[in-house]
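Help needed: design a sequence for this.
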């Protein structure tokens, strides 16, 4: 009888423990519309880095770890013949681009520092660092001017980390290019120095991208 009671207690305890385990975080997949993938905010004492999802109303801040940005098949194009685009691969080869200019049915990821007040940070700027990329091929982020000339912001193809300084009160977009279909993770970190001279960081945040064939 004692053994039977002990076994029953153990089973009851196990069931209770299972029932109290917190559920896993739901992942939000975004395949079209506007997001600020790199959304930098200032709390009054710290920098934060999240993803501002404007595909819902009202817009919400999400932890990048809880989001998948999905590059649909319509984002697939080919590398231009202009040698300035050789960082994307061989001319004519496939490349998937989340574009600098909004396109219907394709996710439109931006950079936003509009919620960092003037005077809080030295130089009124932050440094965005692409720490690492994992995936089937290289990833780059670049802008193009009115003449179609590219300016590379980040490029995993020539070594990481890469950094770029961005002024506060900025809302900008760039082209996000993926050189093969598959799943990628990109780790970003934002750093700055307060007006009082203290170095601060958001810590590293991991972003997931899926690229459809």
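Sure. Designed sequence:
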């Amino acid at each position: 009888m004692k053994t039977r009671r002990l076994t029953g207690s153990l089973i009851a305890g196990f069931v209770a423990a299972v029932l109290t385990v917190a559920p896993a975080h739901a992942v939000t997949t975004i395949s079209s519309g506007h997001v600020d993938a790199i959304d930098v905010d200032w709390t009054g004492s710290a920098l934060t880095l999240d993803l501002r999802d404007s595909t819902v109303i009202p817009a919400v801040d999400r932890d990048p770890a809880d989001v998948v940005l999905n590059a649909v098949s319509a984002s697939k194009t080919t590398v231009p013949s202009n040698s300035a685009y050789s960082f994307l691969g061989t001319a004519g080869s496939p490349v998937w681009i989340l574009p600098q200019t909004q396109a219907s049915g394709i996710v439109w990821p931006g950079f936003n520092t509009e919620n960092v007040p003037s005077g809080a940070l030295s130089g009124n700027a932050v440094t965005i660092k692409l720490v690492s990329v994992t995936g089937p091929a290289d990833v780059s982020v670049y802008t193009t001017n009115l003449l179609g000339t590219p300016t590379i912001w980040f490029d995993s193809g020539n070594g990481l980390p890469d950094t770029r300084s961005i002024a506060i009160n900025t809302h900008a977009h760039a082209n996000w290019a993926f050189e093969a279909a598959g799943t990628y993770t990109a780790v970003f970190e934002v750093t700055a120095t307060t007006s009082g001279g203290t170095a601060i960081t958001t810590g590293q945040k991991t972003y997931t991208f899926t690229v459809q064939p």
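The radius of gyration is 22 Å.
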